[in-house]
Design goal:
It is a single chain. Helices cover about 35% and strands about 20% of the residues. It has 15 helices and 13 strands. It is elongated and about 80 Å long. It starts with a helix and ends in an 8-residue tail after the last helix. The structure holds zinc ion (ZN). The site of zinc ion has 8 residues, from α8.
């Protein structure tokens, strides 16, 4: 997942409330006795109660995530760990009683780290000081640079502009976060800061993490997903402080970055389990989460939370012998972290087989935790339908707040579907600060996972999934190319999609 952490925080703050206000209080949108969009309410309530009970009593989400973390470790796409994770999920789904579980393989060029060192050398001295460092993804396959260090602070446009002439040929030091957030200044993604450094002629980038406790972070440094021309690395907050101290003590501090990385064709497999629909078997609802993780820890939060919740939702459906009207595909995506590789490949396959019109809905769980409401993703025509589902969830579990929101976002596996006009729905949740601090970092481990909150993700997502899959009618459809473009513009997504080279329209 890329950048989504910020979106989550926003949703927890402003946007949800705004949407709730905009669309009226949940539950008052549909007059009682009006046509019930989500099918027969008493039936839905009954199924929701069963789901609730089953998950609260028998959920295996937390346990299987713990077991996989211990047995496998990280789940990096294209690595032997990644392939073991694919097999783990496949076996588990078979164990849960799915007769139809398949691998959807894909082959793409992908980046992997190999070796990296960073040394800082005060000018005219041979007194090397090694600094603990990790390479950011899409750094060059081979890079050996040395140059004077320039501190660009938070690395925003203004910070670079102020130092303009001093950056060419130097190695820049920039914060990943904002050290002293000034009013109205929005942070940039590490890939955007790297792009600015390249534009200004820097020969290397050292990103300072701002999370205390020797936390190192990885993730891409490229806005396009292609290799970048200069090395970009991450160091801890403590190392950053030390280097800045040395910069004050000695003029002309020099840095040396040596790295090798691998960029090669890799093979990976999405895992797909199918539950055939009882009335409209040709129509599909896809629920997915990316199984892959970065390699610095075990990806318990990103995205053990989402993917192992999806596995447990699948278990719940089988255990209760639920047979909704439409077919459900439970999908474990791989390659999300390197640029949505698995979901892009799946969408391409479906598109060329003429199957995309049959996908009625996509629900993606990426770091989704302890949901408090449904996000209609900018499909306003769906707000009454989804609000009504949320109300029924609330009747079964009064602790569910049912806060509706209606804002699309990017950077996870729903995106390739959304770009093709397929309807997307999400669940808004929240994460504690200690979990957010370990985003993409060497501390994203099992101790951050809250078992009860993960159960909430499973039961609320399972209810929403069932309600959509079993609805008599879903009041929205896949949009054509022009309407998809207009929708993305209305959702404010044109500029970010242009930055990442994903905007396929002329205007
Ligand atoms: Zn993610």
């Amino acid at each position: 997942m890329k950048k989504k952490v910020y979106v989550y925080l926003l949703l927890a703050g402003g946007i949800c409330l705004l949407s709730a206000y905009q669309f009226g209080r949940p539950g008052r949108v549909l007059p009682v006795g009006d046509s019930d969009p989500a099918g027969s309410k008493p039936k839905l309530e009954k199924v929701f109660s069963k789901i609730n009970q089953e998950v609260l009593q028998n959920s295996r989400a937390y346990e299987t995530l713990g077991e996989a973390s211990q047995r496998i470790g990280h789940r990096l796409t294209g690595s032997s760990n990644g392939s073991r994770a694919e097999e783990y999920a496949h076996n588990l789904l078979r164990q849960y009683g799915f007769s139809e579980v398949r691998y959807a393989p894909f082959e793409v060029e992908s980046w992997m780290r190999d070796t990296v060192t960073l040394a800082v050398v005060p000018n005219k001295s041979d007194n090397f000081r090694d600094v603990e460092v990790v390479a950011l993804a899409h750094s060059p396959v081979d890079a050996h640079v040395s140059g004077e260090l320039v501190d660009v602070g938070n690395g925003l446009e203004g910070d670079f502009a102020a130092l303009k002439a001093k950056i060419k040929g130097k190695i820049v030091l920039v914060n990943i976060g904002l050290s002293s957030p000034t009013r109205g200044s929005r942070n940039l993604h590490r890939s955007e800061k790297t792009a600015l450094a390249i534009q200004h002629g820097a020969i290397g980038v050292i990103m300072v993490n701002l999370v205390p406790g020797n936390v190192l972070l990885t993730g891409t440094a490229s806005v396009t997903g292609k290799l970048i021309p200069i090395p970009s690395v991450c160091i801890s907050m403590e190392s950053g402080q030390e280097i800045r101290q040395w910069m004050q003590e000695e003029k002309n501090l020099h840095a040396l970055i040596d790295m090798t990385n691998i960029s090669r064709k890799i093979r990976a497999r999405n895992v797909v389990a199918t539950l055939k629909g009882s009335e409209y078997p040709d129509e599909k609802i896809i629920i997915g989460g990316h199984l892959d993780s970065w390699d610095l820890a075990t990806g318990a939060i990103d995205n053990g939370l989402g993917s192992f919740s999806v596995l447990d939702i699948a278990r719940t459906f089988k255990s209760l012998k639920l047979k909704p009207k439409r077919t459900i595909e439970f999908v474990m995506f791989m390659g999300e972290e390197q640029g949505l590789l698995g979901s892009k490949s799946l969408v391409e396959d479906m598109k060329s087989a003429g199957m995309l019109d049959k996908v009625r809905y996509v629900l993606n769980l990426d770091m989704t935790n302890d949901p408090n409401g449904i996000n209609a993703f900018g499909r306003s025509e769906m707000v009454p339908f989804l609000t009504s589902i949320g109300e029924t969830m609330k009747q079964v579990e009064p602790a569910f707040p049912n806060i509706m929101s209606n804002q699309a976002d990017l950077h996870s596996d729903h995106q390739p579907f959304m770009m093709e006009g397929v309807p997307v729905v999400g669940l808004n949740g929240h994460l504690e600060k200690n979990a957010l601090d370990c985003y993409h970092a060497n501390c994203d481990r099992m101790n951050l996972v809250n078992k009860e909150q993960m159960k909430n993700t499973v039961r609320y997502s399972a209810m929403l999934l069932y309600a959509i899959a079993d609805a008599d009618d879903i009041p929205t459809r896949r949009m054509d190319d022009t309407r998809t473009r207009d929708y993305l513009i209305a959702q404010g997504l044109r500029t970010p999609l242009q930055i990442s080279n994903e905007w396929r329209w002329k205007e």
